[in-house]
Write a sequence for this structure.
């Protein structure tokens, strides 16, 4: 209620003031129209008396001031025309000083002073000095600020400056500088004093009102920046020290923050660069509540943009040692402001790092120095929990990655992992993912074991449990995504030198073994395939390389591979381990290492026997074993027979008859390898196919017994296709008569009343018959071969 009453009262007082100005303006206009100077002065003084009020807020007072200002512009036009009032400007200057109240007197004096300067009947500097001194007569903060603002506004175009019409021997731009600086100093004092104008309980309201008036003070700095004569030397020796003296001595956080920001925004970047020491020297002297981090951040942002504007300015930055000065200043500010929150300090280091990456991208020592300062600030503190601090640290760590587009550069920064250590587990993972994404996006190759060591230290949040966190607490989808990212990363670790590549593999192996069993199914396969890639490059090599402790030979690497895959037994993940053993066996085959290949097959069979219990997994595994064994050409007769016998034996022991049938006819390929030196044992091929036929028959009978009808003839058609394959390959034991007999068997089965019709099986058989017809019609050697078969 009291607030609403206060607002209503203020509106009423403003309306009364406006009415007073309106009333006196009417008589003023009449006096001006009749060229009556005495009446004009009388009513203008009465009009201006309305500005003597203390009851209005700055916002409302501004409205009143602007209404009076409009009338003063009209009065100024009248004063300029001596023919209208018949009084010389010198006499007029004396005459207005007889006004009864000081505020109207000074407004009139400033108005006539403007005309006096334009008349050039007196040096501009004398008039300006007189006015700026006289205005000290009004010490009420709001009234004084608006009066001095009026003085600044009307004198703006009349300052003596280089190439200005008001410059003369007696009037130089330095007089203009002195006038603006003096007016600025007085206005700042008035502005600061405003905070003491009301009770403490209204401090927030007062600060808001003061904030509304800040531009009145700041305009002086803008005027200074526009004076042509203010070159770097004048700015360095006169302007900046005088302005900073006011800023530091006023001891008011609102004024200090605003004016420091003003200095940075209105004066040229080149000046800031050359006066960096002076400007930064003021920062530690500011009040502790001043948001100095924002001020310094804006300064560094301006300097970064200046550096980016032209390569020609970069030597200037080195010349003035900008980085060292900024770094020292930030250190002093953090030291001086003991209550500065950690987020403020880190924000400053982010800005300094951004500046460094823009201006000195080649100076990695500077980048590392900034990170080192950050580590010092964070040391002794617990893991960061504040999201704002964490966000700034992530920004700090991301900046080098974004600038260099190359993690290898970041890996040379010794303090990079030390900063990461201060992140909490969740953010550490986020940062690790950012690093991996940077590597993948830029296709960066990490090519030494030392760099891999540093890299894995950086992403340790993904490759092992830290700080007591457990993989059990993680969301399954997130965990998979993280581990798949690590798996992709492993393919970016590469070196053409086999010795170094082996060191990289050992480094990775050491790290992923610390990751626990849940991560191994994701991290072991890419490591195995990276290692196999190395093996294939070394196929031509064998034996030890002289003088090397750990020679990169295929034999040595296969031993490492065996240990890596064995680690999966703790998971356990037998199906995956079996697949990897078979891949290694194939690589050993290509390297012509029979004992090694045999050992890998043995491991695969042991896993099959002891670990693979699920019937579906057994089917998949046996087909993988058969497929791999079929491609092996390194084995002697004895070893091959042993492995082939095992494979066929396991095929016949599968749980379901259809699975047995398919595995057994797949084994036929083990006895007929279609290349120059491959085995071609038609007898055993036929044996496998006949055995599969018997199993297919048994499967049909079982279905008949359990369901009262035979199943589809799909298995028979599949076996027929195998017969056709080996028939075409030239196996003498597979004859046209055997194929003819099988076709008749299938037709009989399909026509039987007990057989269930199946469209897929029918289509499959029809397609097979169509193929036979095609081969018969094609003619040639194959046509003759197929000719005896009757459809």
């Amino acid at each position: 209620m009291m607030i609403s009453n206060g607002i209503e009262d203020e509106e009423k007082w403003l309306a009364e003031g406006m009415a007073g100005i309106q009333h006196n303006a009417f008589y003023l206009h009449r006096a001006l129209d009749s060229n009556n100077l005495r009446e004009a002065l009388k009513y203008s003084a009465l009009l201006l008396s309305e500005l003597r009020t203390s009851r209005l807020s700055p916002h409302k007072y501004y409205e009143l001031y602007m209404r009076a200002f409009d009338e003063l512009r009209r009065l100024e036009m009248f004063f300029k025309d001596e023919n209208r009032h018949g009084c010389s400007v010198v006499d007029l200057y004396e005459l207005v000083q007889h006004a009864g109240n000081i505020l109207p007197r000074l407004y009139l004096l400033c108005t006539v002073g403007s005309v006096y300067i334009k008349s050039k009947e007196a040096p501009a500097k004398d008039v300006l000095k007189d006015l700026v001194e006289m205005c000290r007569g009004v010490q009420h903060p709001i009234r004084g600020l608006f009066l001095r603002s009026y003085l600044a506004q009307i004198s703006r175009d009349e300052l003596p400056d280089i190439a200005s019409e008001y410059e003369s021997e007696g009037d130089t731009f330095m007089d203009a500088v002195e006038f603006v600086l003096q007016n600025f100093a007085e206005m700042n004092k008035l502005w600061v004093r405003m905070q003491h104008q009301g009770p403490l309980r209204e401090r927030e309201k007062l600060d808001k009102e003061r904030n509304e008036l800040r531009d009145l003070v700041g305009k002086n700095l803008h005027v200074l920046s526009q004076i042509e004569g203010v070159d770097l030397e004048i700015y360095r020796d006169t302007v900046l020290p005088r302005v900073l003296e006011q800023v530091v001595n006023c001891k008011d956080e609102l004024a200090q923050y605003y004016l420091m920001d003003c200095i940075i925004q209105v004066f040229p970047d080149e000046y800031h660069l050359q006066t960096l020491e002076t400007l930064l020297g003021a920062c530690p002297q500011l009040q502790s509540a001043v948001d100095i981090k924002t001020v310094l951040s804006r300064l560094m942002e301006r300097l970064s943009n200046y550096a980016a504007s032209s390569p020609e300015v970069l030597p200037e930055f080195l010349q003035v040692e900008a980085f060292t000065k900024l770094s020292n200043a930030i250190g002093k500010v953090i030291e001086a402001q003991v209550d500065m929150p950690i987020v403020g300090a880190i924000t400053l280091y982010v800005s300094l790092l951004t500046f460094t990456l823009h201006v000195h991208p080649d100076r990695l020592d500077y980048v590392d120095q900034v990170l080192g300062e950050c580590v010092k600030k964070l040391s002794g503190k617990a893991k960061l929990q504040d999201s704002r601090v964490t966000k700034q640290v992530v920004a700090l760590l991301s900046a080098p990655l974004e600038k260099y587009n190359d993690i290898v550069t970041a890996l040379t920064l010794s303090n990079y992992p030390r900063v990461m250590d201060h992140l909490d587990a969740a953010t550490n993972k986020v940062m690790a993912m950012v690093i991996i994404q940077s590597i993948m996006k830029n296709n960066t190759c990490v090519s030494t074991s030392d760099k891999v060591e540093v890299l894995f230290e950086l992403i340790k949040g993904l490759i092992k449990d830290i700080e007591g966190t457990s993989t059990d607490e993680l969301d399954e989808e997130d965990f998979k995504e993280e581990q798949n990212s690590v798996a992709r990363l492993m393919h970016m670790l590469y070196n053409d030198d086999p010795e170094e590549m082996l060191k990289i593999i050992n480094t990775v192996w050491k790290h992923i073994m610390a990751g626990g069993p849940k991560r191994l199914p994701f991290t072991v396969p890419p490591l195995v395939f990276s290692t196999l890639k190395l093996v294939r490059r070394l196929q031509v090599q064998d034996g030890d390389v002289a003088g090397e402790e750990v020679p990169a030979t295929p034999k040595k690497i296969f031993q490492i591979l065996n240990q890596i895959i064995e680690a999966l037994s703790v998971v356990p993940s037998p199906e995956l381990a079996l697949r990897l053993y078979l891949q290694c066996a194939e690589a050993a085959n290509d390297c012509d290492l029979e004992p090694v290949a045999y050992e890998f097959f043995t491991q695969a069979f042991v896993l099959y026997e002891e670990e693979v219990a699920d019937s579906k997994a057994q089917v998949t595994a046996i087909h993988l074993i058969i497929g791999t064994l079929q491609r092996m050409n390194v084995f002697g007769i004895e070893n091959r027979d042993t492995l082939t016998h095992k494979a066929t034996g396991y095929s016949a022991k599968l749980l379901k008859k259809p699975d047995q049938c398919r595995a057994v006819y797949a084994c036929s390929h083990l006895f007929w390898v279609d290349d120059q030196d491959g085995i071609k044992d038609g007898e055993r091929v036929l044996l496998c196919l006949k055995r599969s036929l018997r199993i297919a028959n048994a499967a049909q009978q079982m279905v008949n017994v359990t369901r009262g009808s035979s199943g589809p003839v799909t298995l028979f058609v599949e076996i027929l296709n195998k017969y056709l394959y080996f028939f075409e390959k030239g196996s003498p034991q597979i004859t046209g008569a055997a194929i003819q007999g099988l076709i008749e068997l299938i037709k009989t089965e399909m026509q039987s009343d007990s057989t269930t019709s199946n469209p897929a099986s029918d289509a499959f058989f029809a397609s097979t018959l169509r193929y036979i017809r095609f081969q018969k019609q094609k003619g040639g050697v194959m046509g003759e071969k197929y000719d005896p078969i009757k459809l």
The chain has 40 helices and no strands. Residues 2 and 638 are 106 Å apart (CA to CA). The chain has a mean pLDDT of 89. Residues 1-119 form one domain.
